[in-house]
Amino acid sequence: MMVGRDVQFAVDKKPCEVGKPILEVEDLVVPSKVHKNNAVRGVSFNVRAGEIVCVAGIDGNGQSELIYGITGLEKPTSGTIRLEGRDITNAPIRERSKAGMSHIPEDRHKHGLVLDYTLADNMVLQRYWQPEFQNHGFIKKNAVLQYAERLIKQYDVRSGQGPATIARSMSGGNQQKAIIAREVDKDPQLLVAVQPTRGLDVGAIEYIHKQIVAERDKGRAVLLVSLELDEVMNLSDRILVIYEGEIVGEFDPKKTTVEELGLYMAGAKKQGEAKA
């Protein structure tokens, strides 16, 4: 009744068709800004084409720093990150983007949008330097407006003044839709989505889940970080549990339970340990 239509809470997705590894992380160590210990300690995993891999854990166990290291927001102390076989461990953020990585950040206000810019300007934040949108350092305003109008229509971004809408004035759901439109339209090989539905209404959540599954069905690799266990269980093809900066378990969502995941997330169990 709130959104004016039927909402499907269960995520409708077909079995995944897994391809080659797109993201490969080996022995990654990322320092913490709040304490002397490392926030991420020797993490290794991969994400293959055509699958959604979810990193699940209680907030504050290194998820944010792991994503910062992968996306270039934080410099790792050691370890290797490869995107389609290319070492991007120390690559600038723009180079990661050009190599095929898109990032839906945890904090849409801090890392996703420039709130006082127009919606049109926000839509080209990752692409303004391309010849399509600039000529000899000058932005092609008409090209930016046409591009923004296409994304607004294609991704159903509700904005009072269309491309001229100031991002700050939009609802959280439509701000998130704008970020997803921008990142997905880059046609990435790897989509990194961090808590993509946090604070959104049920209609926006359903829409975003469908977009993430659609990217996976196109053969993209999706790395998802979520604190919502229902989202973890319904959206993932593979689940990695992180506890105190280490991957302590890997699970098939069809063969595990919320209760079992909870034990690993709380540090009560760890794969590879001898049973008592």
Automatic annotation (TrEMBL):
Gene3D superfamilies: P-loop containing nucleotide triphosphate hydrolases (3.40.50.300). InterPro entries: ABC_carbohydrate_import_ATPase (IPR050107), ABC_transporter-like_ATP-bd (IPR003439), ABC_transporter-like_CS (IPR017871), P-loop_NTPase (IPR027417). The keyword Kinase does not apply. It holds the Pfam family ABC_tran. One of its GO terms (molecular function) is ATP binding. Keywords: ATP-binding, Nucleotide-binding. The keyword Nucleotide-binding applies. Residues 23-269 form the ABC transporter domain. This is ABC transporter. It comes from Gemmiger formicilis.
